[in-house]
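Ticket #4471: structure export looks truncated?
Reporter: QA, pipeline team
Priority: medium

Steps to reproduce: submit the single chain below to the structure queue and open the exported record.
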Amino acid sequence: MKIVIIFLLGIMVVVGCSNRRPLPTQADLLRQDSLERVAHQPKPRTFSSAEEEMLLDLPYRTLPVTYQEGFEQSLPGFEDIAPTMVPSLLGVDGLTDTKAIRLADKDSTHVMLVGGKNILGDPEVYMVTLSADWQPIDQLSLYQESEIEEDADDEDFVAEEDLGKMCIEFSVTSKYMIYIQMVFQSYVDDHRELEGVSVYSIGRDGKFFELEENELNHGAAYD
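Actual output as written to the record:
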């Protein structure tokens, strides 16, 4: 009987030793950690089109943005976009020498600035919104120029200092309070005169809307 018991104990020891795994080494742990990181890495995003990838890869500009003299000409930080692609991608038509830059998304809406020259060669700048799947939604003119011409039917004398151009200029806060101001720029001197200000924001549908005076009085809710 003793011989049988000793034999059984010997078998149990051998089995127990064969099932016991050695503790992992530091190298084993590092290798496992590396494999787990690879397994949990986010998969590369697949784009529905080369155009969508191009929009996503545009240079990014943080808010706020405020108009400074010459902004419409230099378009600082903007990247060239083929004019033929702008209408379908960004919804703005009739521009040449086009450039664009990304701004922060507003909720699920993508926001871009696009600038270029109109048919007369004058600079224009737009803010445009796109849906989550990169379809154009709306556009807002941020910079334009318009000549002030003397009315040929107007017999009143037009003073030289009243000749100039009207410019639309802009300022955008970090919460998308978009200030659009009309400024008269004299041709005679450096005289500039503020003619009016409108304030816009972006709705949840991605469309621009003008804020009413009572909403501006509670601007803290927007900015």
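Status: closed, not a bug. The export was complete when the record was re-opened. Leaving a note from the reviewer for reference: DSSP finds six helices and ten strands in the chain.
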